[in-house]
Design goal:
This protein is α+β, with helices and mostly antiparallel strands and 1282 residues long. 69% of the residues lie in helices and 9% in strands. The protein has a six-stranded antiparallel beta sheet with strand order 2-1-4-5-6-7. Strands 8-22-23-3-24-25 form a six-stranded mixed beta sheet. A five-stranded mixed beta sheet has the order 13-15-16-17-18, with helices on both faces. Helix 8 runs antiparallel to helix 17. The radius of gyration is 72 Å and the shape is elongated. The two termini are 38 Å apart.
C-alpha cells in the first residue's frame, strides 16, 4: 500500500491543488524554498490520518487551517488522499481507497470512498492497516531529529515505552486502579451501613408484641378500606364505562354531523358554483339579449327603411311608366306631325323652293348677262371717247381681260377648294358615321358589362353581409368562451391555491420556480426532467386515493430527474436565486433493493395494485412505494407489517409502520393532496380545452375577418372597375354626342357648299363671256393676234350693236320685273320652307329625339327614362330581396330574442331555485352547526364527568395502592356483602380501636423486615465487591507482566535494529543501545525475589534510562551521546528512528528535512539506506517489498536517489505542488546551496572568534568527527575503486 495522490483545497497555504502525476510507490522527493509549504503538505497527510495534534480541533484551530491568501475568504477546506490498496492492506474490497477530511467553521467530517464516515470507523480502518498510535515515527517532521538528539536517557526510555505500546497498558491499569478505589470506598460504606442496621434491628425486636395487636386491627382496617375502596372503584369504573359509551355515541353523532356539515358545505359550494355559473350565464345572456335587442332595432329600422324605399321605388316606377306611356303617346303624335311636315316640306315647299330658286337664278343670270352685254356695249361706245387711239383702248381692254382672268382664276381656285372641302367633308362624314356606329356598339357592350359588374357587386355585398352576420355570431361565441375561460382560470387558480396549502411554502416556491428554470436551462421534459412524483402516476381506481396519499405522504411533491448532475444544476439555480427548496429523486442515484411481497389474499403490493406509471420512472416509484402493502383491515396491516418488514395501509388510510407505529383516524378528503392535485389537473385540462376552443374560434373569426376584408377589397375593386367603366361609358357617350354634332355640322357644311358651288360655276361662266366679249372687241381670241380682225375705235355703235343694245334693254326691263315678282315668290317659299325646317329641326325632331332617348335604354345608369325605369325595376327587385332577407333576419333575431328571453327566464328561475336551495342548505348548515355545538357541549360535559370519574378511579386506586400489602383473601371476603354505608360504620369503629395503639411504632415490623432484607442485600453486595477486587488485582498484575514483556521485547528489537542500521550508515563503526537500571546506580535491594526473576524479562520498574554507545571507526573508542558533535548526534538519532520504524513497520514514511543537520557523507549514507529500504528486493535470503518514502530536502543526495521529484512553489500567498524532473530538482538544490554559501561568507568573520574560543571538549569532539570523517572517506574510496 502507498499514497497515489494528495488533493488539497483551501488547506493552509494551498488553495486549489490541480491534479498532478501520482507519487512513486518507492522514493519520492519534495523540494522547495523555506516557507513554500512543504511542512503544510506533511501536515495535510497527518490531518487526514487523524494524528494526535489534528484529532480534536476547536473552532479557532479549524479556522487557522483555512487558506488565508488573496481573494475571498475560504469557508471550508478538505484534504483527500488516494491510497493504492492492491495488497488489500485496508480491509476494503477495492484497489483504491479514497480518504477525505473536510473542515469548516462549524464542521469536521471524514469521508471514506466519498461517503461520510465517523472518526472511530476511520481510526479502526487505519489501525487495521498498520498506522499505530504508539509509533508516530512513520512521519518525521522538522525538529523531530533535533528533539531525539537532545533527549536524556530517561526520555529515550519513555520513547521506548511509547513505541512498545505501554500507553494502552497504563490506561487499562489506571482504569483498574480507579475501579479498585471505588470498590474499597463502596465496601467501607457497606460496613458502616451494616453496623447501623444491626443496632436498629435490636431496637425493633422490643416493639414487636404490641405491634401484633395493632397489626391485627390494622389488617381488619385495611380489609374494610380495601373493600370500601374496591366498591367505590367499581362504581367509578361503571360510571366511566357509561360515560365512555355516551361519549362514543356522542362521537359517532358528532362524526355523522361533521359528515353532514361537510356534505352541506360541499352542497353549498356546489350550489354557489352553480349560482356563479348561472349568474355568469345570465350576465352573458343579458349582454346577448341586449345585443339581440339592438340587432332587432337595427333590423326593424333596416326593414322599415327598405319598406319605404320599396314603396318609393314602386311609386317612381309607376310614375316612370306613366311618363313613358305619355312620352310614347306624344312621340307618336310628334312622329305623325313630323311625317306631315316632312311630307309638306318635301312634296310641296321644297320643290317650289327649288323651282323658284332655279327660276330666280336663271332670270338673275339672264338679267346679269344682258346687263353685262349692255355694259360692254356702253363701254365700247364710251371707249371711243375715252381713248384716243385703238392701241390705248386695246391696252385698257387687255388689262380688264387680265383682271377678269385673275378673278376667274381666283373663283376657280375657290371652287376647287370648295370641291376639295366637300370631298373631305364627305370622307370625314363617312368616317365619323362609322366611328359613331363603333362607339355605339362599344357602348352597348360596355353597358352589358356594367350590368354584370353591378350584379357581381350586389352578390359580393350579399355574401359580405352574410359573413358579417356570421362574424357577429362568432364574436358572441368568443365572448361566451372568454367568460368560460375566465371562470376556468379562476377555478384553476383556486385549485392551485388549495394544492399549495397542502405543502410547505418553500416547496411551493421551489415548484413554481422550477417551471421557469427548466425552460431556461433547456431541459428536455420526459428525458431529463420528469416533474413531480404525483404527476408521473395515475390511480387504477379512485378508491385507492387515500391509501396512496398516506403511503407517499410528502414524497408526492418530490421532483424526478434523470441524473444527480441535473438535480445539482436545478438546486444551484434555486439556491442562487433564493427560490425555495425541493427534494430531487435522481434516477441514476436511487438504489432500491429488490422486495419479495408476501403471497396472501389479505395484502397486495400497493405499487402494482393501485398506481400506473411510465417504466422510465420505475426506480422513483419503487423508491416511494416499493415497501408499501395495501391491507384489507387494520389487524391484517398490523400483522403483515411486522411479519414482512413493510408499511401496510388500509383503504381508509390507517398506516401500520414496519417500525411498529400506528397512524389512523379521520381523513378529511377536502384537504387531500391527491384530491387537490387531481382537481388542479382537471381544471387545467378544462382550461386548456377552453383555451383551445377559444383559439380555434379566434382563428375562425380571423379567417372570416380576412374573408370579409377580401370580399370588401373585391367589392371596392369591382366598384372602382364599375366607376371606371361608367366614366369610360360617359366619355364614349360624350364622344358619340360630339360625333353626332360633328356629323350634323358637316352635313350642313356639305349642304351649304353644295349650294355655293352652282353660283360660283355661273360666275366663272360669266367671266368667260366677258373675256370673250373683250377679246372680240380687241379682235383677239385666246391671246392669239395673228389673223384676228381688229375692231375700230369708234364712239358709236353699229346697227347690230345698237339693235342688240335695245334688245338687251328690253330684256333687262322684262327680267327686272320678273325678278321682282319671283323674288317675292322666292321669299314666300323660303319663309315657308324655313318655318317648316325650324318646326321640324328645332322643335319636332328635337322633341322626338328627347322622347326617343327617354324611351330607349342605352346603358343601365343613363339618365333616360327607360334606363332609369329598368334601373328602378332592378333596384326594386334588389330592395325586395334585401327586404325579404331583412324580414328573415328580423324573424331570426326575434326567434333568437325569444330563445334568449326564454333562457333568461330559465336562468332566473334556476338562480331563484338555487338561492332557495342555498338558503335551505345554509339553514340546514346552521341547524347542523347548532347540533354539532350541542354535541360538542355534551362531549365537554361527558369529558368533565369522565375526568371526575377518572380522578375518582385514580384516587381509589392510589388509596388501594397506599394500603400496601392486603390481608388474606378470607379476611377480605367477610366484608364483601356489606354495603358502603355499613363499611363506613365498620371502618369508623376500627379507627376508634386503633387510637388506643397510637403510641405504638406502627412501622416497626415493616422496618424490621426492611432492615433485615437490606442487611442481607448489603452482605451479598460486599461479597461481590471483594470478589471483583481480587479480579482487578489479578488484571493489574497481568497488565504489569505484559507491559514488562512489551518493553523488553521492544528494547531488544530496537536495539538489534539500531545496531544494524548504524552499521549500514557507518560501515566501519558500531552502535548499541544500553539499558541503565537502578542496580547500576545502587538503588535496588538484592534479595531472593530479585534472584528468582526471569532473566529474559527483567523488572521494568528498575529501568532508569536508555543509553547510546557508538564508535565511528574500527579503532576508535565508544562514545556516549553527550560526547558527539551535532552531525553525529543527528546521525544517531536517524539510526534510532530507522530502528524504531523497522521494529514497527508502517505502510509508508514521510520525512520533512530529515538530512538538515547532516554533512554530505552522512546524507549520502542516509539516502542510500532509504533507497534500499524503498526498493523491492527479490533476494531469497532477504526478500523485501517496496516501501514508499516521501522526503523533503534542501540537499542533492536524497534528490539523486529519488524515483520521482516534486517541487513546491509559493506565489501570491498560494502554494502549489508540481512534478519536476530529477535534473530540474538538482539544479534547484544547487541554486539554493549557492545562495547559502553566499550568505555564509558574510557571516564567517563573525563566527571565527567563537570557533577559536572553544574548550577542550570541543576539540575532542572535532577529533572524533575528523577521525570518523577520514574513516568514512576511506571506506567510500575503497567502495568506489574497481
Amino acid at each position: 500500500m502507498h499514497i497515489k495522490s494528495v488533493t488539497l483545497s483551501n488547506f493552509r497555504s494551498f488553495k486549489q491543488q490541480p491534479e498532478i502525476q501520482p507519487f512513486s510507490p518507492e522514493m519520492n522527493c519534495v523540494v522547495g524554498r523555506n516557507g513554500s509549504g512543504k511542512s503544510n503538505l506533511f501536515d495535510a497527510v497527518q490531518f487526514v490520518l487523524g494524528c494526535p495534534k489534528f484529532w480534536s480541533l476547536r473552532t479557532e484551530e479549524r479556522q487557522a487551517l483555512l487558506h488565508e491568501g488573496s481573494g475571498s475568504a475560504a469557508v471550508s477546506a478538505f484534504v483527500e488522499i488516494v491510497f493504492d490498496n492492491s495488497d488489500n492492506r485496508f480491509s476494503l474490497d477495492a484497489d483504491e481507497v479514497v480518504l477525505r477530511r473536510t473542515i469548516g467553521h462549524k464542521k469536521d467530517e471524514f469521508f471514506l470512498q466519498r461517503k461520510r464516515a465517523t472518526k472511530n470507523e476511520i481510526m479502526s480502518l487505519l489501525e487495521g492497516a498498520g498506522f499505530s498510535k504508539s509509533n508516530p515515527y512513520f512521519i518525521v517532521q522538522q525538529g523531530k531529529v533535533n528533539a531525539l538528539c537532545t533527549m536524556s536517557d530517561g526520555e529515550r526510555l519513555a520513547l521506548l515505552k511509547e513505541v512498545a505500546g505501554t500507553t494502552v497498558y497504563d490506561e487499562k491499569k489506571a482504569e483498574s486502579l480507579v475501579k479498585m478505589e471505588e470498590n474499597a470506598a463502596s465496601i467501607e460504606k457497606i460496613n458502616e451501613t451494616l453496623e447501623y442496621m444491626e443496632n436498629k434491628l435490636e431496637e425493633l425486636r422490643g416493639e414487636k408484641e404490641e405491634l401484633g395487636q395493632y397489626q391485627k386491627l390494622d389488617r381488619e382496617r385495611r380489609a374494610v378500606e380495601y373493600t370500601l375502596y374496591d366498591k367505590e372503584l367499581r362504581r367509578a369504573r361503571e360510571g366511566l364505562d357509561e360515560i365512555e359509551h355516551a361519549r362514543n355515541e356522542a362521537l359517532e353523532r358528532s362524526t355523522a354531523l361533521a359528515e353532514e356539515v361537510r356534505a352541506v358545505h360541499d352542497g353549498i359550494l356546489g350550489e354557489q358554483g352553480k349560482k356563479k355559473a348561472r349568474e355568469g350565464a345570465l350576465r352573458r345572456n343579458l349582454v346577448y339579449l341586449k345585443s339581440l335587442e339592438n340587432d332587432k332595432t337595427n333590423a326593424m329600422t333596416h326593414k322599415t327603411k327598405l319598406d319605404l324605399e320599396v314603396q318609393e321605388i314602386e311609386e317612381q316606377i309607376q310614375q316612370g311608366s306613366e311618363l313613358m306611356a305619355s312620352n310614347k303617346r306624344e312621340l307618336k303624335k310628334i312622329n305623325v306631325e313630323i311625317a306631315r311636315v316632312e311630307t309638306e316640306l318635301n312634296d310641296a315647299v321644297q320643290p317650289a323652293y327649288e323651282e323658284a330658286k332655279r327660276a330666280m337664278a336663271e332670270m338673275t343670270h339672264e338679267r346679269d348677262e344682258a346687263r353685262k352685254q349692255m355694259d360692254a356695249l356702253y363701254a365700247k361706245q364710251g371707249r371711243g371717247k375715252q381713248f384716243r387711239t385703238k392701241k390705248d383702248r386695246d391696252a385698257h381692254l387687255k388689262v380688264q381681260i387680265e383682271e377678269l382672268r385673275v378673278a376667274k382664276s381666283e373663283k376657280e381656285n375657290l371652287l376647287n377648294e370648295k370641291r376639295d372641302k366637300l370631298s373631305s367633308l364627305r370622307k370625314s362624314l363617312a368616317s365619323e358615321k362609322k366611328e359613331s356606329e363603333s362607339k355605339s356598339k362599344e357602348l352597348t357592350e360596355k353597358s352589358k358589362l356594367l350590368s354584370d359588374l353591378k350584379r357581381s357587386i350586389e352578390e359580393k355585398k350579399r355574401v359580405r353581409n352574410e359573413m358579417a352576420d356570421s362574424r357577429k355570431e362568432q364574436w358572441r361565441s368568443i365572448n361566451e368562451i372568454s367568460d368560460k375561460v375566465q371562470e376556468a382560470r379562476e377555478a384553476s387558480r383556486k385549485a392551485l391555491f388549495d394544492m399549495r396549502k397542502s405543502m410547505p411554502r418553500a416547496t411551493s416556491m421551489g415548484l413554481d420556480a422550477l417551471k421557469h428554470i427548466v425552460v431556461q436551462e433547456k431541459l428536455t421534459v420526459g428525458v431529463e426532467y420528469f416533474g413531480l412524483v404525483v404527476e408521473n402516476f395515475s390511480l387504477t381506481d379512485p378508491k385507492y386515493a387515500t391509501a396512496v396519499e398516506v403511503a407517499a405522504q410528502n414524497s408526492l411533491f418530490h421532483i424526478i430527474v434523470d441524473t444527480d448532475a441535473t438535480a445539482a444544476r436545478l438546486m444551484a439555480r434555486l439556491e442562487k436565486d433564493k427560490l425555495g427548496r425541493v427534494t430531487f429523486l435522481p434516477l441514476n442515484q436511487l438504489s432500491v433493493e429488490s422486495v419479495r411481497y408476501p403471497d396472501s389474499t389479505d395484502v397486495a403490493p400497493l405499487m402494482e395494485e393501485c398506481v400506473v406509471f411510465d417504466p422510465a420512472v420505475r426506480k422513483a416509484m419503487e423508491h416511494v412505494f416499493a415497501r408499501k402493502l395495501l391491507a384489507r383491515s387494520v389487524d391484517v396491516a398490523s400483522t403483515w407489517s411486522s411479519r414482512s418488514n413493510m408499511d401496510a395501509i388500509t383503504l381508509d388510510g390507517d398506516l401500520c409502520s414496519r417500525r411498529g407505529a400506528l397512524t389512523g383516524g379521520f381523513v378529511d378528503q377536502s384537504k387531500s393532496r391527491l384530491h387537490a392535485h387531481f382537481e388542479l389537473k382537471r381544471t387545467e385540462d378544462v382550461l386548456k380545452q377552453l383555451e383551445k376552443e377559444h383559439c380555434e374560434m379566434k382563428e375562425k373569426t380571423t379567417s372570416v375577418d380576412q374573408q370579409v376584408s377580401s370580399i370588401m377589397g373585391e367589392v371596392q375593386r369591382l366598384e372602382a372597375k364599375h366607376a371606371n367603366l361608367d366614366h369610360l361609358m360617359s366619355r364614349i357617350e360624350d364622344d358619340v354626342g360630339k360625333l353626332e354634332k360633328t356629323i350634323e355640322r358637316h352635313s350642313k357644311q356639305i349642304q351649304l357648299i353644295e349650294e355655293e358651288i352652282p353660283p360660283m360655276e355661273t360666275q366663272i361662266t360669266s367671266f368667260d363671256g366677258q373675256i370673250d366679249r373683250l377679246q372680240n372687241e380687241i379682235g383677239t381670241h385666246d391671246n392669239n393676234l395673228t389673223g384676228a380682225i381688229k375692231t375700230d375705235l369708234t364712239s358709236t355703235l353699229s346697227e347690230e350693236e345698237q339693235e342688240l343694245l335695245d334688245h338687251l334693254k328690253a330684256t333687262q326691263a322684262r327680267l327686272d320685273k320678273q325678278v321682282d315678282e319671283h323674288t317675292n315668290v322666292l321669299e314666300d317659299v323660303t319663309i315657308k320652307r324655313q318655318n317648316l325646317q325650324s318646326l321640324l329641326e328645332d322643335n319636332l325632331i328635337k322633341r322626338r329625339n328627347e322622347l326617343t332617348e327617354s324611351t330607349s335604354r342605352i346603358r343601365p345608369d343613363s339618365n333616360n327614362a327607360s334606363a332609369m325605369q329598368a334601373q328602378r325595376k332592378e333596384e326594386l327587385e334588389e330592395k325586395k330581396r334585401e327586404l325579404e332577407e331583412a324580414s328573415r333576419a328580423l324573424e331570426d333575431v326575434e326567434k333568437q330574442l325569444a330563445e334568449a328571453k326564454a333562457i333568461d327566464e330559465t336562468l332566473r328561475s334556476e338562480i331563484a331555485t338555487i338561492k332557495n336551495d342555498l338558503e335551505q342548505l345554509k339553514s340546514q348548515d346552521a341547524k347542523y352547526q347548532k347540533e354539532l355545538d350541542e354535541t360538542h357541549e355534551t362531549q365537554e360535559k361527558l369529558l368533565n364527568k369522565r375526568s371526575m370519574c377518572i380522578q375518582k378511579r385514580e384516587d381509589y386506586m392510589r388509596k388501594i395502592q397506599e394500603l400496601g400489602s392486603l390481608p388474606p383473601a378470607a379476611e377480605l371476603t367477610a366484608f364483601n356483602k356489606k354495603s358502603i354505608s355499613a363499611l363506613m360504620k365498620s371502618l369508623d369503629a376500627i379507627n376508634r380501636q386503633l387510637k388506643k395503639y397510637s403510641h405504638v411504632n406502627k412501622k416497626a415490623f415493616d422496618q424490621f423486615v426492611n432492615f433485615s432484607e437490606q442487611r442481607d442485600s448489603l452482605i451479598k453486595r460486599k461479597e461481590e465487591l471483594d470478589e471483583g477486587g481480587l479480579k482487578v488485582k489479578e488484571l493489574i498484575e497481568s497488565l504489569d507482566r505484559k507491559k514488562d514483556e512489551a518493553i523488553n521485547r521492544t528494547f531488544r528489537g530496537v536495539s538489534a535494529h539500531f545496531k544494524d542500521v548504524f552499521q549500514e550508515l557507518v560501515p566501519n563503526g558500531a552502535g548499541e543501545l544500553t539499558m541503565r537500571t537502578a542496580m547500576d546506580e545502587g538503588e535496588a535491594d538484592t534479595d531472593e525475589e530479585d534472584d528468582e526473576r526471569d532473566l529474559n524479562n527483567p523488572d521494568v520498574s528498575l529501568y532508569r534510562g536508555v543509553g547510546v554507545k557508538v564508535r565511528f571507526s574500527r579503532s576508535s573508542e565508544n562514545f556516549m551521546m553527550s560526547q558527539l558533535s551535532g552531525g553525529q548526534k543527528a546521525l544517531v538519532a536517524m539510526a534510532l528512528i530507522f530502528a524504531i520504524q523497522r521494529c514497527d513497520p508502517a505502510p509508508f514514511y514521510l520525512f520533512d528535512e530529515l538530512d538538515q543537520a547532516l554533512d554530505s557523507t552522512y546524507r549520502a549514507a542516509v539516502a542510500s539506506l532509504i533507497k534500499r529500504q524503498a526498493t523491492r528486493s527479490d533476494d531469497p535470503d532477504n526478500p523485501r517489498e517496496s516501501t514508499q518514502f516521501i522526503c523533503s530536502t534542501f540537499r542533492p543526495e536524497l534528490v539523486a536517489a529519488a524515483n520521482r521529484c516534486f517541487g513546491i512553489s509559493h506565489q501570491n500567498k498560494v502554494s502549489s505542488l508540481h512534478l519536476l524532473s530529477k535534473n530540474d530538482a538538482l539544479h534547484f538544490i544547487a541554486n539554493l546551496m549557492s545562495e547559502e554559501e553566499a550568505v555564509g561568507e558574510v557571516t564567517s568573520l563573525a563566527t571565527s572568534k567563537a570557533v577559536g574560543s572553544r574548550g577542550s571538549t570541543s576539540s575532542k569532539k572535532r577529533k572524533v568527527e575528523d577521525e570518523s570523517a577520514d574513516e568514512q572517506y576511506a571506506t567510500d574510496a575503497e567502495s568506489a575503486s574497481p
